[in-house]
């Protein structure tokens, strides 16, 4: 029986994880659930899944959570704040952690789970982008079993699950749907609205990653994520646009052989792999009927229209704190875009300017990374008015 902490339970990945967990009552149990600020949604999930602990990140949510759990007649214990979250992720209440908080806000709890040697289903890609070296070292030292919960990285994991299986690997190819604006020219994107940007053609996801998919920053973050997970330099990580989102990624070996993982675009497959590995378990996702789909298309990414992907490669090449700066500037820019404060094209401009204005330093400590993250957030906040929509 795995006792699972679902961090970010009220989100898109959190919901998919709970769906898979509920299908396997004899093998999986949600023992800890967390959310950012949605107390009512968290209480409702507790009603359904009866965890031992519930954590609300926003401290002011504590009282409402405690009273809500009591009112529902549950003995789930209420907690609040990031320290409680880290302690529960690392503690006895769980052996498996689904890290599905969005953004750098997930760093501490993800790191705590890695250090504590948990089975770590890692969806929170921003924490790897921000602190990949430290995260990898923490997982190694803590003996954590990391299974990537990003469809591309999960695909690569399934193709080459161990370091031994990666011998003779020449390159990996991350597939990208191209997002809602694939095929559009740069000038037509100036007026793109948040509701257009979050309308992803193939995946149903949270707002931040949906905007990242529209700018191709998501693929850029994934290149950096792949670098850390599979220990490959950026020039051996390629990106291929594949609008059907059925081939989730490919690995190529020195002998000319290519392996790929295919499936319907539904994150429950990746989550079931994470819970069961090396065993397979049902996920609720149907098999792939290639005859019904008919064709698989591939094209090169358009880096002129979507410069974020290029910026991410550049940040990876620059190394040090550059990826932390890239991620922080992007988080601020995306939040401002979703708030209607800046236009769509301001996102790549702000991230590019933030990288230029905040030169990379060494990323040898968590403090150095946090400082770079904070500096880039401040810098980008200050630059927002110049890009006002
Ligand atoms: P979402 O916005 O749907 O959910 C985010 C969750 O994080 C919510 O439960 C929210 O309450 C919680 N949260 C937000 N801010 C928080 C804070 N400051 N402290 C604590 N909790 C906080 O996002 P999502 O789409 O589920 O994505 C989650 C992560 O998974 C992201 O890193 C994303 O890149 C990654 N991911 C998602 C998908 C997908 O299909 N949705 C695919 C691949 C990777
Ligand atoms: Mg992905």
UniProtKB/TrEMBL annotation:
Binding, NADPH: 10-13, 36-37, 124, 126, 206
Domain 1-deoxy-D-xylulose 5-phosphate reductoisomerase N-terminal: 4-132
EC number: 1.1.1.267
Binding site for 1-deoxy-D-xylulose 5-phosphate: 125, 151-152, 177, 200, 213, 218-219, 222
Magnesium is among the record's keywords: yes
Enzyme class: oxidoreductase
Pathway: Isoprenoid biosynthesis; isopentenyl diphosphate biosynthesis via DXP pathway; isopentenyl diphosphate from 1-deoxy-D-xylulose 5-phosphate: step 1/6
Catalytic activity field: 2-C-methyl-D-erythritol 4-phosphate + NADP(+) = 1-deoxy-D-xylulose 5-phosphate + NADPH + H(+)
Signal sequence range: none
All residue ranges annotated as the DXP reductoisomerase C-terminal domain in the record: 262-378
Binding-site list for Mn(2+): 150, 152, 222
Functional description taken from the UniProt entry: Catalyzes the NADPH-dependent rearrangement and reduction of 1-deoxy-D-xylulose-5-phosphate (DXP) to 2-C-methyl-D-erythritol 4-phosphate (MEP).
Record-linked PANTHER family: 1-DEOXY-D-XYLULOSE 5-PHOSPHATE REDUCTOISOMERASE, 1-DEOXY-D-XYLULOSE 5-PHOSPHATE REDUCTOISOMERASE, CHLOROPLASTIC
Full protein name: 1-deoxy-D-xylulose 5-phosphate reductoisomerase
Annotated source species: Luteimonas vadosa
Species lineage: Bacteria, Pseudomonadati, Pseudomonadota, Gammaproteobacteria, Lysobacterales
Gene name, Swiss-Prot/TrEMBL: dxr
């Amino acid at each position: 029986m795995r006792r699972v902490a679902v961090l970010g339970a009220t989100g898109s990945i959190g919901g998919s994880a709970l769906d898979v967990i509920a299908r396997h009552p004899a093998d999986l149990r949600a023992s800890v659930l967390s959310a950012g600020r949605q107390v009512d949604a968290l209480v409702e999930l507790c009603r359904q899944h009866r965890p031992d602990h519930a954590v609300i990140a926003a401290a002011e949510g504590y009282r409402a959570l405690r009273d809500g759990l009591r009112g529902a007649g549950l003995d789930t214990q209420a907690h609040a704040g990031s320290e409680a979250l880290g302690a529960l992720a690392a503690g006895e209440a769980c052996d498996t952690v689904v890290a599905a908080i969005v953004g750098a806000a997930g760093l501490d709890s993800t790191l705590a789970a890695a250090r504590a040697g948990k089975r770590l289903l890692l969806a929170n890609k921003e924490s790897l982008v921000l602190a990949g070296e430290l995260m990898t070292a923490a997982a190694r030292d803590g003996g954590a079993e990391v299974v990537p919960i990003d469809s591309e990285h999960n695909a690569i994991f399934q193709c080459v699950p161990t370091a031994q299986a990666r011998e003779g690997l020449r390159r990996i190819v991350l597939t990208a749907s191209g997002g809602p604006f694939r095929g559009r020219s740069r000038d037509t994107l100036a007026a793109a609205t948040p509701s257009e940007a979050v309308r992803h053609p193939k995946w149903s996801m949270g707002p931040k990653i949906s905007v990242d998919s529209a700018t191709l920053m998501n693929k850029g973050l994934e290149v950096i994520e792949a670098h850390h997970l599979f220990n490959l330099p950026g020039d051996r990580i390629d990106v291929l646009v594949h609008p059907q989102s059925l081939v989730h990624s490919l690995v190529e070996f020195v002998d000319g052989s290519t392996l790929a993982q295919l499936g319907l675009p539904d994150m429950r497959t990746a989550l079931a792999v994470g819970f069961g590995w090396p065993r397979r378990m049902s996920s609720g996702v149907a098999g792939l009927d290639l005859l019904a789909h008919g064709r698989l298309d591939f094209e090169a990414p358009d880096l002129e229209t979507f410069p974020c992907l290029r910026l991410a490669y550049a940040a990876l090449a620059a190394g040090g704190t550059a990826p932390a700066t890239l991620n922080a500037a992007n988080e601020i820019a995306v939040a401002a875009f979703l708030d209607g404060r800046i236009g769509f094209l301001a996102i790549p401009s702000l991230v590019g300017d933030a990288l230029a204005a905040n030169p990379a330093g060494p990323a040898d400590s968590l403090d150095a990374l946090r400082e770079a993250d904070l500096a880039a957030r401040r810098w980008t906040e200050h630059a927002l008015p110049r890009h006002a929509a």
